[in-house]
Write a structure and sequence with these properties.
- The structure is a single chain.
- With 602 residues, the protein is an alpha+beta fold.
- It folds into five domains: 83 residues, 3-Layer(aba) Sandwich (GIY-YIG endonuclease); 103 residues, no CATH class; 96 residues, no CATH class; 155 residues, UvrC, RNAse H endonuclease domain (Nucleotidyltransferase, domain 5, 2-Layer Sandwich); 51 residues, DNA polymerase, domain 1.
- It has 20 helices and 18 strands.
- Helix 5 runs antiparallel to helix 10.
- It is globular and about 120 Å long.
- The model has no long low-confidence stretch (mean pLDDT 81).
- Belongs to the UvrC family.
Length: 602
């Protein structure tokens, strides 16, 4: 029986900020909430119960006891609520942690610190940076750091007394240049800690000081006329510069901000978080939260902001969001931008959270339907790219050349999500000289669809361009020139971060890396690349054979091409009967060719 009597308890409640806890018949906490005014908030559960949703009415029916804690402010209530939810995990509260444990990079607390990876935080071990939602990006960062700074990887306890005693010997890492041998006193602790300071700055997303460090080292080496050493420092500076350039740069004028966007439906909220450091996106994550009661969107967002800022060790003084936070954080500005670079940043976050929600919904619908896998993937792709119809015919373009020689452009076609190799086409650029990828893309796309229009053939439902904004823009120029721009959906895929670009949209789309639709796009891109590379190699091989045949007396370029077309290889020409050669060259020229090739082959 429910012994809780709200009529006798509610009048005694304080009108102060605080945290309240509801207990069931087993004296288990079933809900924890915060309130700006405890009396008003708790009373709302027991006044006009018909206005509550089913889950809230079920919660009220199970309340047998109430406890509350008065705090100084609503912000203090948020902190206490957050702590108690993590501790007790009541069944009617949204859970702030998802089921994934993301990895961290740890700089160990030891003499001559090491770079380690961990999924659990133990502050006694070292200083942690992260978490990294994408382990591949973490591994790429670690690889770059080890290339820049020769740190030790061994687990030896490098006490100075043991080093002086000669207890340790350098290992293979020293001999191949990956470590400077602090275990044998070949590197001072002061020199080593300089590296650690630069690594710490990079892990925080601050690149300027490490780049200046390399510049100073390079200049110092140059002044000593140690030019090889100066070149090594320059290469390290360039490596760091290139790594920074791979990050999505927003605007250097936007320093440290956190960006949060939220969209919700009846049961779930979807939140995207982007951490911006010195104008560069250093962390990005999108996740869903299952709502237990009819929580306000602002409350859900505020709780998640506090949780993720703590998890990602963010100290940014500005939070950009698409709705106002329920509570102001002390010393932190909440911005809802309407225009400018900050609005573009928010739009990027919103675009990712909306596609995350759509991808989740489509995946769930496909799983429940149990339908054909190919159709499911095409439906997912249609929804991910906002296409008006199912992309049953997809064509993908890729350019291939070697320093501008033997250029070839490949077009592959997928029908119903599978390769249709009879529809593949190769293009040799006719109007472009040298390695001009953009001009080549404009030419071949224009030639392809001009011909389809002339033949009144079927146009594709989707065009994919292997490349970023530049290649996509070049392809769009071709479609505009022949008057079909806007009639066929077209996208570009950049290999570096697998970004999807749309025409006239500067913000890329990041489809979930596990999404079947992204895998289909990647399959098309990779198949176009394979087809183009194979054709490029064959073309180089044929051109080499033609040039070899041209060296023979009496054989010009046209004759060499005829021989290549008829026989394929020099070996086949050598083994061919005289009658076959005479059909192509005539009797005297065939005899001369036979003798020359025989001497050549021998």
């Amino acid at each position: 029986m429910n012994s809780f009597d709200p009529k006798s308890i509610l009048p005694t409640l304080p009108e102060e900020p605080g945290v309240y806890r509801y207990f069931d018949v087993h004296d288990t906490i079933i809900y924890i909430g915060k309130a700006k005014n405890l009396k008003n908030r708790i009373s709302s559960y027991f006044v006009n119960p018909k206005n509550h949703d089913t889950k809230t009415r079920r919660l009220v029916q199970q309340i047998c006891r109430l406890e509350f804690t008065i705090v100084h402010s609503e912000f203090d209530a948020l902190l206490l609520e957050n702590t108690l939810i993590k501790q007790f995990q009541p069944k009617y509260n949204i859970l702030l942690r998802d089921d994934k444990t993301y990895p961290f990079i740890c700089l160990s607390h030891e003499r001559f610190p090491r770079l380690l990876t961990a999924r659990r935080i133990d502050h006694k071990m070292g200083t942690y940076y992260g978490p990294f939602a994408n382990p591949k990006s973490m591994n790429a960062l670690l690889e770059m750091l080890h290339q820049l700074f020769p740190l030790r990887t061994c687990s030896l306890t490098l006490k100075q007394s043991a080093i002086d005693y000669g207890k340790f010997k350098v290992c293979l890492e020293y001999h191949i240049g990956n470590c400077k041998g602090p275990c044998e006193n070949l590197q001072s602790e002061e020199d080593y800690l300089q590296y650690i300071e630069q690594i710490s700055q990079i892990l925080k997303g601050h690149y300027q000081k490490p780049k200046q460090f390399f510049v100073e080292k390079m200049q110092a080496a140059a002044e000593k006329l140690a030019f090889e050493q100066a070149q090594e420092w320059k290469e390290k500076w360039q490596l760091l510069e290139n790594f920074q350039a791979k990050s999505t740069v927003v605007n250097p004028a936007i320093h440290d901000v956190d960006v949060f966007s939220i969209v919700s439906d009846e049961q779930l909220s979807y939140i995207n978080f982007m951490k911006v450091t010195n104008g560069t996106i250093t962390q990005s994550q999108t996740w869903e939260v299952k709502k237990k009661l009819n929580e306000e969107e602002a409350d859900v967002l505020t709780m998640l902001i506090w949780e993720k800022r703590d998890e990602f060790h963010s100290s940014a003084k500005e939070i950009i969001s698409n709705i106002p936070m329920a509570i102001e954080f002390q010393g932190v500005k909440n911005t809802l931008p309407q225009m400018g670079d900050k609005r573009k940043l928010l739009d990027m976050s919103l675009k990712n959270v909306l596609y995350f929600r759509k991808e989740k919904a489509d995946r769930k619908a496909a799983e429940e339907s149990g339908g054909d896998r190919k159709m499911r993937i095409l439906l997912t792709l249609k929804n991910d790219l906002h296409l008006s119809k199912l992309p049953q015919r997809i064509e993908c373009f890729d350019n291939s050349n070697l320093q501008g020689t033997n250029p070839v452009s490949a077009m592959v076609c997928f029908l119903q999500g599978v390769p249709a190799k009879k529809e593949y086409r190769l293009f040799t650029p006719k109007t472009v000289e040298g390695p001009n990828d953009f001009a080549t893309m404009t030419e071949v796309v224009g030639r392809r669809y001009s011909r389809l229009l002339e033949e009144e053939a079927e146009l594709p439902d989707l065009i994919i361009i292997d490349g970023g904004k530049g290649q996509l823009s070049a392809a769009c120029d071709a479609l505009k020139a022949i008057g079909i721009y806007g009639q066929i959906p077209i996208i570009g895929i950049a290999k570096r971060l697998e970004e999807i670009y749309f025409p006239e949209d500067s913000l890329p789309l990041y489809i979930d890396k596990k999404s079947e639709s992204l895998k289909l796009i990647q399959q098309l891109r990779d198949e176009a690349h394979r087809f183009g590379i194979t054709a490029h190699r064959n073309k180089r091989s044929k051109n080499f054979i033609v040039s070899q045949l041209e060296e023979l007396d009496g054989i010009g370029k046209l004759t060499a091409q005829k021989l290549l077309k008829k026989f394929g290889t020099i070996k086949n020409i050598d083994e061919a009967p005289m009658e076959e050669l005479e059909k192509v060259l005539g009797k005297m020229k065939a005899l001369s060719l036979k003798n020359q090739i025989k001497n050549w082959v021998d």
